[in-house]
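Weekly structure sync, notes
Attendees: PL, DS, HV (note-taker this week)

Item 1: TM0106 family RecB-like putative nuclease
DS walked through the input record. Source organism listed as Arthrobacter methylotrophus. Sequence as pasted into the shared doc:
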Amino acid sequence: MFFLPNPDRRVPDDLIVSATDIVAGSVCEFAAVRKLDVLLGRIRGVQEDDAMAALTAALGDKHEAKVLGLLRDEFGSSRVYEVKPPRTFDRAGLKDRHRETIQALRDGYEVIYQGSFFDAGFHGRADFLILQEDGTYAVFDTKLARSAKTEALMQLAAYADQLRNAGIPVHTDGHLILGTDETTSHPLPESIPVFNAARDRLRAVLEAHRLGSRPSTWGDPRWMTCLKCADCKAEMEAADDVMLVRRMNRSRRAKLMQAGIKTMSMFAAADLTDAGIKMDPLWAELQEQARLQSGTCEVDGTINGVSYVVLDNPALVAIPKPDPGDIFFDFEGDPLWQDPSTGQWGIEYLFGLVEFAPEGHEFLSFTAHSLEEERQALIDFIDHVTERRATYPGLHIYHYAQYEVSALRKLARRHGVMVDEVEELVETGVLFDLYETVKGSVRISDRSFSIKKLEPLYMPAGRIGVTNAVDSMVQYSIYRDAVDQGQLETAKSIFSSIKSYNEYDCISTWKLRDWLINLTR
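Item 1 (cont.): predicted structure, written out as tokens:
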């Protein structure tokens, strides 16, 4: 989204939108008008350091470059026309690239790469336009995703619409080249009306807002909100929105809004029966959570700024009795890693374990940087557990949330090894999920039950370096790049920091287990 000065200075500048803007606006109109407010100088934009988005974008560029190379091999470089970005990002430069794209299409190049379109308030660059046997051009878009999503189909429709407007014959199907290297086909007659409606709606929303003089405000009913994007999250926090209450959903939020209860503090203090809301157990639980988060209820304790309430629930007493053989377990994985030979996605590159030792604890790790090594790491992990159980038959393997169980089962299926052994650990309860215990036993003064949010209750020192799973994935990608470039000392240092993060997670699981046990005393 950007402005272009209008040649007629008596007329406002033209607002230009892209396919990405239109797709994003179909999901969250509030974010779109906030972006316009930034362009108009009415507000400052939300500053978001999204390392994961940057990593995904870089991987997307690699995927696109690989496809371009394959197309050049197939058709010959002379039959692939690449449209460079405009030399000057102004009206003349954009028009030049639009004309260049249309001319390349009329000249019959087999592939147009990064075809540039500028027409009727729209600017966009199509990944690939490929000539078909029937003389039409088909739109191909590269996506890291492993399945087609509605948003991607709308982007196909956006460029098909531009081709049609320019009088270029358009194939009835658009195509997505997915991260799995699979190409999927999608009928454009089904997507173009959806795109056109989204485009017209966004333009109307933006133009109406532009005519005003004040910035957008949270809660304005004129705009659809997603309640998930950076703009929504920032405004919800600032407004103390009821959506901040743990386990609140959109439908219950809407009921509260209709009753005039817009903030978490109002919800904590409200008489819901007087507000016309029929009480049920979940409403009662939500209101108690609101009181805890807003600091207006009695608590069982407050440690390092986090308050908690212990619930009357058998989950606490169901925690196994501590055993000297107990293991505290955490995976590090990268779902965006792709095997260079098979194209398979995802790797569990670090199995981390903390066990009791005379000096306090011992950290063990099984690492993998290829699918073959991943298979061996699984075998070594299960062999270690089996050997330890022979010495400590009453041990349990503690983890937090279901990822570890799901990942172990996935690995056993992927490699065809240790399937029965993994199932035995799951079915006999040797693998013990502390998240389920936390969920049923306590409430805390935060909307999240992430283990990072619980840590102030039992690990007050806090984290340094790699601090969360996204950091870990980003650092692993940097590690892989360092290895590929031969920077082995740098790679070693990066992987050491990932291992330290993993060890901290394992210790955190151990300390959480002990804290929960102490609640029953």
